Amino acid sequence: xxxxxxxxxxxxxxxxxxxxxxxxxxxxxxxxxxxxxxxxxxxxxxxxxxxxxxxxxxxxxxxxxxxxxxxxxxxxxxxxxxxxxxxxxxxxxxxxxxxxxxxxxxxxxxxxxxxxxxxxxxxxxxxxxxxxxxxxxxxxxxxxxxxxxxxxxxxxxxxxxxxxxxxxxxxxxxxxxxxxxxxxxxxxxxxxxxxxxxxxxxxxxxxxxxxxxxxxxxxxxxxxxxxxxxxxxxxxxxxxxxxxxxxxxxxxxxxxxxxxxxxxxxxxxxxxxxxxxxxxxxxxxxxxxxx
Length: 291
Ligand SMILES: [Zn+2]
Fold this sequence. Notes:
Helix content is 34%, strand content 15%. It is of the alpha/beta class. The protein has 2 domains: 7-80 and 219-289, 3-Layer(aba) Sandwich (Rossmann fold); 83-164, Glutamyl-tRNA Synthetase, domain 3 (Alpha-Beta Complex), CATH 3.90.800.10. Strands 1-2-3 form a 3-stranded parallel β-sheet, covered by helices on one side. A 3-stranded antiparallel β-sheet has the order 4-5-8. The chain has a two-stranded antiparallel sheet with strand order 6-7. Zinc ion binds next to loops.
């Protein structure tokens, strides 16, 4: 039997230009896929129009091409996927794994962890607001390729979480899970700020009957113990930098040691030949990283 082909992805939100923080995820996910002979796909997570910056999706894509990272397939736009998200919600509602919630923000406890108030049906006279996933599994454990074993109490720290928002938008967690399945993603390489989301995504995958990809959470620009990005670089759009300099900066941040002064093509050749994920510095725990 042939092993499952590796498929990685980069999934930016079009909320501004490509910055070094997301460039690090792009470079990390690209090299993890390419060095295993895999494919690297691109997904634009444009499901939150109020947060989007006009034109930024095409500017991010242009930057990636300019930096030498071309996706191995058509770009998937989440704004074209509403029917698939709705079908998954309908499936969960029908199976009794999700429920309508009438609570407003002030009905939620200060911890923000939902206490199951609307699990058993309709509140008279109020309009349903959101759809929540019924969370019945006590804990979630998984092994992250970089951060090691992660264990989260779903009942205590997560609770029944929103999959269709009260403002009518589809929730990020649902869209990611449905699209990772649709695109056949086998490994997710992204910033450690999303480590917190992983257990919700694993639980959703299980509930929907999907396979789970492997996960690797990269250090954040603010929290890495290795090469730190300067404040200026963190804030600076990548487009202001020469492509080879931008890619070399991301590689250095990821603990790799490219020879100085290489042009873009030999730099990528070096990176694909020498990429070693064991050299990536681990981040501090995400709670500390958010400071
Ligand atoms: Zn409720």
